[in-house]
Amino acid sequence: MPSKLSVSLFLFVLLSAGTARAQDLVLSGVVVTPDKVPGKGWAVIKDGHILSILENAPDHAGGPTIETNGIIFPGFVDLHDHPM
């Protein structure tokens, strides 16, 4: 189970304006999708949007790769931890 700190870091990276949206970003961790849980996976973020979910590490990325050491739910918003 990811800690609140790792979830907060993940959301901060996704939602922060500026440099994170100007370049590609790759998040690595256990990816959970509606269809399956492939285990270790990579979420490629481009311009603030999920570009792809990969089961193998991308060959190259235009930005940093962040090892979350946690669980990634692409597109999921946890309403319990988000103030209005």
Give a brief outline of the structure:
The protein contains 2 helices and 4 strands. By secondary structure, the chain is α+β, with helices and mostly antiparallel strands.
Major sheet strand order: 3-2-1-4
Number of domains: 1
Look at the helices and sheets and give the structural class. Answer: alpha+beta
| Assembly state of the chains shown | single chain
- Beta fraction: 25-35%
Question: Strand-and-helix sequence, N→C?
Answer: HHEEEE
Mean pLDDT, nearest integer? 77
Gross geometry = globular
CATH topology: Urease, subunit C, domain 1
Tell me the major beta sheet.
Answer: 4 strands, mixed
The CATH C-level name is Mainly Beta
> Helical element count?
2
Low-confidence stretches: 17-22
Q: Mind telling me the CATH superfamily name?
A: Urease, subunit C, domain 1
Rg, alpha carbons: 12 Å
What key phrases describe this protein's structure?
2 helices, Urease, subunit C, domain 1, single chain, 4 strands, alpha+beta, globular, 84 residues
Describe the structure.
The protein is of the alpha+beta class. It has one domain (4-78): Urease, subunit C, domain 1 (Roll). The protein is 19% helix and 35% strand. It has a four-stranded mixed sheet with strand order 3-2-1-4. The longest helix is centred in the first third of the chain and has 12 residues, at 4-15. The protein is globular. The chain starts with a helix and ends in a 12-residue tail after the last strand. Mean pLDDT is 77; it is low at 17-22.
